[in-house]
Amino acid sequence: MQFEIIAKCSTTRARVSRMKLAHGITMLPTFMPVATQAALKGLTPQQTEELGLTLILNNTYHLNLRPGTKVLEAAGGAHRFQGWRRNLLTDSGGFQMVSLSSFTKVTEEGVLFASPFTGEPTMLTPEESISIQHSIGADIVMQLDDVVSSLTTGPRVEEAMWRSVRWLDRCIAAHEASGRTDKQNLFAIVQGGLNHELRDKCLEEMIKRKDRIPGYAIGGLSGGEEKDIFWRIIAQCTEKLPVDRPRYSMGIGFAEDLLVCVALGVDMADCVFPTRTARFGVALTFNGPLNLKLSRHAKNFDPIDPTCPCPTCSSGVSRAFLHHIVTHETAAAHAVTQHNVVFQARLMGRARDAILKDSFPQYLRTFFQDYFGDVGYPRWCVDALRSVGVDLLSGTEDVQMVEGDGAKWEYSEA
Ligand SMILES: [Zn+2]
């Protein structure tokens, strides 16, 4: 991997960088859509490529179950299997094992879980996770970590943090022994829950291994914790992680979360939210999400966003038509998914442009005004951005603040 920082915001910790992987260049910060089964739900790989995406995520757990490593190896890897020519990242498989299996037990050897086919106990070790990711052939592979919910407290959090460090060493050893380090890049995952001391210890240990680690992820968040704690953990990690390594915040997809994380120094994020919410009939826009199921769209013949270059908006597909077919017809899922994936790309592309022009604080103010001006700014966003020198409230009059996570799409148009 070649990683080069091109521009830095003079106020916040945001930066623009160029990440060159085996399947081309990806400009950061970027949002990675999730293609669980080697396909973005609702899009063909060709459509995905035509939308200009350069980096997507595949789930190791699912690909290992079906089609399995034998098929992937026979195909020459997941790129060829799915007809995807750009960059690919795979997770370790651990998260799905914990979240989807009815039986999971973590031992020092690995994660023991019930096979979804036979119910038999099946072990995933750090070495096996890396081996499966080698068969998939992703450009970025993730270490197996000991995943605990962000709401877990007590000694289990510390145990999982130290085990994640030990498993990182096993993953590094397995990866280096494979001779694939020139094509596939192993990222570490910082754990430590919501505890700042544990995060510091994990950061210290993982940064010691920097010479063998091309990038770092921040894990163990986005699990229902308070946003006020979430952003402080992100800020703590980005402050300490090496500047010359990409930083990936796992499981982040709401527009406001993405921009706050970028301001705090995050380069990459992924989430199923934009594609999932599209299938439920919600289109993302710079003025907030639109729930196309609502009857107020029944006679609206405008596109979702007339300024949007996506195939749905630029061909003039009306909100009324989408309202008519949404959640009933697969065509609606395609149309809204294309739009939402492009929205995420525009959100991050505008952030990159603003950082390059050193006008990122102004972009943040404009975004929050357009997106939250009518319903109030989430207080945690205001506080998080103040910590990096941006006051969203300066120069604006009568701005309301709202508590909680401020996920506007949940309550807008209710
Ligand atoms: Zn669009």
Automatic annotation (TrEMBL):
Q: Does the keyword Amino-acid biosynthesis apply?
A: no
Recorded E.C. number(s)? 2.4.2.64
Cofactor dependence: Zn(2+)
Sorted keywords for this record are: Cytoplasm, Glycosyltransferase, Metal-binding, Transferase, tRNA processing, Zinc
Assign the protein's first listed, main location to one coarse class.
cytoplasm
Q: Which reaction does it catalyse?
A: guanosine(34) in tRNA + queuine = queuosine(34) in tRNA + guanine
User: What Pfam families does the database record attribute to this sequence?
Assistant: TGT
Q: What class of enzyme is it?
A: transferase
Q: Where is this region: RNA binding?
A: 251-257, 275-279
Q: Which GO terms describe its cellular component?
A: cytosol
GO biological process per UniProt? tRNA modification
- Membrane-spanning segments: none
* A single GO molecular function term of this UniProt record: metal ion binding
Which residues does Zn(2+) bind? C308, C310, C313, H339
Query: Is tRNA processing tagged as a keyword?
Result: yes
Q: Per UniProt, where does substrate bind?
A: D91, S92, G93, G94, F95, D145, Q191, G220
Task: List residues of the tRNA-guanine(15) transglycosylase-like domain.
Answer: 12-371
Report which superkingdom the organism of origin falls in. Eukaryota
Which family does the entry's similarity section mention?
Answer: Belongs to the queuine tRNA-ribosyltransferase family.
What role does it play?
Catalytic subunit of the queuine tRNA-ribosyltransferase (TGT) that catalyzes the base-exchange of a guanine (G) residue with queuine (Q) at position 34 (anticodon wobble position) in tRNAs with GU(N) anticodons (tRNA-Asp, -Asn, -His and -Tyr), resulting in the hypermodified nucleoside queuosine (7-(((4,5-cis-dihydroxy-2-cyclopenten-1-yl)amino)methyl)-7-deazaguanosine). Catalysis occurs through a double-displacement mechanism. The nucleophile active site attacks the C1' of nucleotide 34 to detach the guanine base from the RNA, forming a covalent enzyme-RNA intermediate.
> Tell me, how does this one assemble?
Heterodimer of a catalytic subunit and an accessory subunit.
Q: What is this protein called?
A: Queuine tRNA-ribosyltransferase catalytic subunit 1
